[in-house]
Amino acid sequence: MEHVDVFRKLSMLKDFDHHMQKAIDLLDEPFYLGLAFMGFGIRYMSPPWPFNDLRKARFYLEKAVDYIPDYPGVYLYLGIYHLKFGQKEEAKKMFLKVLSIEPHYLFIKAHEENVKEALRYLEKM
Fold it and tell me: For the segment 11-23, what is each residue's pLDDT rounded down to a tens digit?
């Protein structure tokens, strides 16, 4: 039964990739396009090997910054990215950036959670 779950997860990952790429191709509103790039960045950073790709994760997260430079969630994930490589100073800069950004009026709850998470990482450092 465990193998069935693995195949279902792989199918879901393939579907996610397809739909996110379609969103990136079709979206023209910068804010939502930035969120799509951020989603792709998180996707490539999170799954276990061989389904992750940290090079792509960084590319998509930095692309998201181009579209949503005032959205703290993208900096939270860039901080986590830098921690994966032991780049503590760079990670710290990203987490502090999360704390310095004003919340977007549509994403106040997400902002609060991003701030809590950034503080948690900073305390660990």
Answer: 777 888 888 889 8
Q: How many CB atoms lie within 10 A of CB 24?
A: 15
Contact 77, 41 (CB under 8 A): yes
Q: Tally the residues of the chain.
A: 125
Question: Which residue in the block uniquely carries the two structure tokens 């996707």?
Answer: 43
pTM for the model: 0.84
- Rounded to whole angstroms, the Cα distance separating 77 from 110 reads 13
Residue environment code for 96-106, b if the CB has 16+ CB neighbours within 10 A, otherwise e = ebbeebebeee
Give the integer Cα–Cα distance in Å for 12 and 18: 10
CA torsion angle for 37, 35, 84, 113 (degrees, to 10)?
Answer: 180
CA angle 103, 31, 25 (to 5 degrees): 155
